[in-house]
């Protein structure tokens, strides 16, 4: 969609067509992510253009056009091409850039061909209006309605030719419906556990929400996402199964089922790093502390030099107060901060528990510290999240299980 100087250029387009154009743009972002073979490839929603694709060998900037009720004419892409050329002139010394017009129209010319240099300069870049020659130097100059120069860059014939080489014009992009079918086919290819149309539709709805949420971010960096992160943020079949069980079973039976499936043999617990991610929203310090004591009781084995890890989220500013209470009760712990005002030290967090130091639990303060810990090569990691509304750790690659609860005290019944 054409967006310049903070305005959406809709002109005579109907509201319905404009809204459909937004979804077409979002679908294009999903399509490009799912098409990528490289999981580290990054897209930017509303970047230089509607959808930017960033790779090690360069970037592609895609302007999406959706005109299902309008036949193609050069005027529909003239403005976007001019903006692309301006970007090229400013950044021509940077890494490799490709510019792409990706559009669907009611009808298109049968024999449409990409313009040559002369046609590009005359029709699309309108050199008769914007070219300024001073002392044998050529400038591409644009003025506002007041006559003030708002853009001016020197260029050569080689620059125009170079830009044309980098420009792709696709006026026969897939229709809205056809592109959606392509997305569903790619969903089934990218998600091995997607077996039905219903599951594919759930994945698509989650993917659409991710892209929509990116689009409304103010910061360019916040509108970036890699294919790997994109895939990881989409809930899997197990997530929906747990949600279904939560609603289907009586709640007590639900808790018992989780216990039987995951925490039955507590008395003979094996050595491993067990990480408990606990949602503390609307919980008081006393109940949080009680759950921590239960986790320690079941999973701390000083004689065998291992103990559980706990990350408390949605705890507001109560973490320091909680730590003080634990320490006063001689519940010794490590949190990766060896002294006051220290930066996070992973070796401090990894200190093994012994009879001498009496460490009973490791407390991880935040997601950032958790990510540092997860990169460490430690014995088997078993990660359990207990959440109330929405899980926050779907992207974890380790052995990870997520359970919905009503209250943090339910954790004591489960484990």
Estimated structural class: alpha/beta
Major sheet summary line: 6 strands, mixed
Taken from the alpha-carbon principal axes, the silhouette is elongated
Q: Could you tell me the radius of gyration in angstroms?
A: 28 Å
Distance between the termini: 52 Å
Q: Quote the beta fraction.
A: 15-25%
Arrangement of strands in the largest sheet: 10-6-5-4-3-11
> Can you tell me the residue ranges where pLDDT is under 50 for at least 5 consecutive residues?
1-11
Keywords:
six-stranded mixed beta sheet, six-stranded parallel beta sheet, 415 residues, alpha/beta, disordered N terminus, 15 helices, single chain
Word description of this protein:
This protein is α/β, with parallel strands linked by helices. It is built from 15 helices and 17 strands. The protein has helices at residues 15-35, 75-91, 117-124, 127-130, 157-166, 176-190, 197-215, 227-232, 237-248, 251-262, 285-299, 319-328, 346-349, 367-374, 410-414, and strands at 3-4, 7-8, 42-45, 51-55, 58-67, 97-105, 131-134, 137-143, 149-155, 167-170, 224-226, 273-279, 309-313, 332-334, 359-364, 381-387, 399-404. The strands form four sheets. The chain has a six-stranded mixed beta sheet. The protein has a six-stranded parallel beta sheet with strand order 14-15-13-12-16-17. β7 (131-134) and β8 (137-143) form a beta hairpin. α1 (15-35) packs across α7 (197-215) and α6 (176-190) packs across α7 (197-215). It is elongated. The two termini are 52 Å apart. Mean pLDDT is 90; it is low at 1-11.
């Amino acid at each position: 969609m054409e967006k310049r100087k903070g305005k959406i250029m809709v002109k005579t387009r109907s509201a319905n067509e404009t809204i459909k154009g937004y979804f077409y743009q979002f679908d294009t972002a999903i399509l490009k992510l799912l098409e990528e073979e490289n999981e580290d490839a990054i897209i930017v929603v509303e970047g230089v253009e509607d959808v930017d694709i960033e790779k090690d060998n360069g970037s592609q900037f895609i302007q999406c056009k959706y005109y299902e009720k309008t036949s193609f004419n050069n005027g529909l892409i003239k403005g976007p091409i001019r903006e692309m050329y301006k970007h090229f002139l400013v950044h021509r010394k940077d890494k490799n850039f490709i510019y792409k017009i990706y559009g669907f129209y009611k009808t298109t010319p049968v024999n449409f061909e990409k313009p040559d240099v002369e046609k590009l300069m005359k029709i699309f870049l309108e050199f008769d209006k914007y070219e300024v020659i001073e002392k044998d130097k050529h400038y591409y100059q644009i003025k506002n309605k007041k006559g003030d120069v708002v853009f001016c860059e020197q260029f050569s014939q080689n620059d125009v030719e170079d830009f044309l080489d980098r420009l792709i014009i696709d006026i026969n992009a897939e229709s809205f419906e056809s592109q959606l079918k392509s997305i569903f086919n790619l969903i089934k290819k990218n998600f091995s556990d997607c077996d039905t149309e219903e599951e594919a539709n759930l994945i698509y709805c989650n993917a659409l929400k991710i892209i929509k949420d990116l689009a409304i971010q103010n910061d360019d960096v916040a509108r970036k996402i890699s294919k790997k992160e994109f895939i990881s943020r989409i809930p899997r079949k197990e997530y929906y199964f747990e949600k279904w069980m939560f609603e289907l079973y009586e709640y007590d039976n639900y808790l018992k089922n989780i216990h039987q499936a995951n925490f039955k043999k507590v008395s003979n617990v094996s050595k491993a790093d067990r990480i408990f991610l606990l949602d503390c929203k609307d919980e008081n310090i006393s109940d949080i502390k009680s759950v921590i004591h239960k986790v320690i009781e079941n999973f701390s084995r000083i004689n065998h030099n291992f103990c559980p890890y706990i990350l408390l989220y949605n705890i507001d500013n109560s973490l320091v107060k909680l730590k003080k209470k634990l320490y006063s009760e001689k519940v010794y712990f490590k949190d990766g901060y060896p002294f006051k005002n220290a930066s996070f030290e992973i070796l401090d967090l990894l200190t093994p528990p012994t009879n001498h130091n009496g460490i009973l639990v490791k407390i991880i303060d935040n997601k950032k510290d958790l990510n540092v810990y997860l990169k460490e090569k430690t014995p088997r990691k078993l990660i359990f999240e207990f959440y109330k509304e929405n899980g926050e750790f779907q992207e974890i690659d380790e052995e990870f299980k997520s359970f919905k609860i009503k209250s943090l005290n339910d954790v004591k019944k489960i484990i």
